[in-house]
Amino acid sequence: MRVAGGQGFYGDTPAAVDGLLADGVDYLCLEALAELTMAILQKDRQRDETRGYTRDLPAYLARALPAVADGRTKLITNAGGLNPTAAARAAIDTARAAGFSGLRVATVLGDDLTTRLPELTETQPLAHLDTGAPWSAFPAEPLLATAYLGARPIVDALDHDADIVITGRVADASLFLAACAHAHRWKWDDWDRLAAGILVGHLLECSGQSLGGNYSGDWWALPHPWDLPYPIAEVDADGTAVITKPVSSGGRVTTDTLRHQLLYEVHDPARYLSPDVVADFTSAHFDDLPDDRVRVTNVRGTPATDTYKTLVTYHEGWSGEMRVAFSWPDAEEKAKATAAIFAKRVEMAGLVVREWNVELWGVNALGGPTVPATAAEPPECVLRVAWRCDDARTAGYVGRELVPLTLSAPPAGLTGAGRGGTGASELLGLWPTLVDKALVDPHVTVTVQEVP
After folding, report:
1. What pLDDT, on a 0 to 100 scale, did the predictor assign at position 406?
2. What pLDDT was estimated at residue 420?
3. Which of 83, 91, 145, 156 is 20 to 30 A away from residue 240, measured at CA?
């Protein structure tokens, strides 16, 4: 079977699925979510309760529906975000508008634990996964709680002949594992094959990043990077996989490009925790084959844990941001001085800032303390200042204190570098925790609707 990763994030390009579908894939997975995306969708739903899913889903469907309707591919996506029901409705509307009737659209629900939090707090510790802080230290009213579900409900949907499966917060790699498990009828305690499917999913979930995107090797030598393709995996029943790309596309597939993605966002490669299996990425063997093909074998896995990672969010104030640039000489010193003058003016105005963040782009903004000390002076420096306040009004007023510096800053005056004067943005705090699967799984449902 062939499975492809047609989307790596909310905002990715739908045009990328054209090459994958032309090359022929049995399953097209669209991975649309991240912690940041969930926060965006939460704010979207706060403004309009019919929102909360990724709005580019119809654009992807418009390109994929002909292949889906022909029975050449099935589409799996977690683009439902916080509102899979509304996303399914949008999918049905898109199919109807395009003249495709009879398609079966499945919706997976049960990851949203928000209304169940009071019940869960009676039996679950819900300690902060990173800091260990107890639930009693949760800083505000919870806005959202979602569990990272696994592949099983997607397989259930495919078993009910779904052509399109739309989920909420299913773990990224589990979308691809579901395709593999459905195609080959893998058992849910076949840990090595499940681990192979998770590794394939991890290699495919970030679209072009496996094929030369963000490549730290000879990135300048990649074939036509303006046409960087998205990845395809050919997966056998025993879990052996060949990672490749559409014929004649740009980019490159080698062990080197794949291992960059293999370690991306991974804490312990020997114990990659997923809802379905604990995968040992260090067990995998990679063989470079001709024509941009890499065979992956020997992946090992161990039983999954008894808990789901769950993300709880809360309101954490409002932020503002400004960026201004300074030129040589003394560009860094001018930027630092402007940040200090700006903060003093805010204090004199009686505006309370809970947190400042000052960055010097061109000096050490990306590297921070890892940047080696040097006596060399940067030819220019961009000062980025962000702040957090308790309310939107104060966050907006803080930015106004920068305006008088237009003619009162260090020479040669402020040069805007974007974002200045924009409105305040709401901030959401994240509280990652664990919830017993036994308390979640009975509430997971799969419904299938047919496009009239």
Report:
1. 85
2. 60
3. 156
Would you call 313 exposed, middle or buried from its count of C-beta atoms within 10 A (0-12, 13-18, 19+)?
buried
Q: Which of 160, 204, 167 is nearest to 182 (CA)?
A: 160
**Binning pLDDT at 50, 70 and 90, where does residue 32 land?**
very high
pLDDT tens across 253-293, in order?
A: 999 999 999 999 999 999 999 999 999 999 999 999 999 99
Residue 9 CB neighbour total at 10 angstroms: 16
Nearest to 174 by CA among 12, 3, 2: 3
Ramachandran assignment for 139, one of left (phi > 0), alpha (psi -120 to 50 degrees), beta (any other): alpha
In the block, tokens 């080197």 appear at 256
Measured between alpha carbons, how far is residue 261 from residues 121, 214, 215, 216, 264 in Å? 36, 9, 9, 11, 5
Spatial strand order in the sheet of 164-166: 285-289, 293-297, 241-244, 232-235, 2-7, 27-30, 74-77, 164-166, 104-109, 445-450
Residue-wise pLDDT tens digits, 138-180: 999 999 999 999 999 999 999 999 999 999 999 999 999 999 9
Mean pLDDT of 311-318: 96
Global pTM value = 0.94
pLDDT of residue 419: 61
Please tell me the predicted confidence (pLDDT) of residue 421.
Answer: 57
Three-class DSSP labels, the chain: CEEEEEECCCCCCCCHHHHHHHHCCCEEEECCCCHHHHHHHHHHHHHCCCCCCCCCHHHHHHHHHHHHHCCCCEEEECCCCCCHHHHHHHHHHHHHHCCCCCCEEEEEECCECHHHHHHHCCCCCCCCCCCCCCHHHCCCCEEEEEECECCHHHHHHHHCCCCEEECCCECHHHHHHHHHHHHHCCCCCCHHHHHHHHHHHHHHCCHHHHCCCCCCCCHHHCCCHHHCCCCEEEECCCCCEEEECCCCCCCCCCHHHHHHHHCCCCCCCCCEECCCCEEEHHHCEEEEECCCEEEEECCEEECCCCEEEEEEEEEEEEEEEEEEEEECCCHHHHHHHHHHHHHHHHHHCCCCCCEEEEEEECCCCCCHHHCCCCCCCCCEEEEEEEEEECCHHHHHHHHHCCHHHHCCCCCCCCEECCCCCCCCEEEEEEEEEEEEHHHCHHHCEEEEEECC
**Number of other residues whose CB lies within 10 A of the CB of residue 287:** 11
Residue 118, Cβ density class (10 Å: 0-12 exposed, 13-18 middle, ≥19 buried): exposed
Task: For 67-83, write each residue's pLDDT tens digit.
Answer: 999 999 999 999 999 99
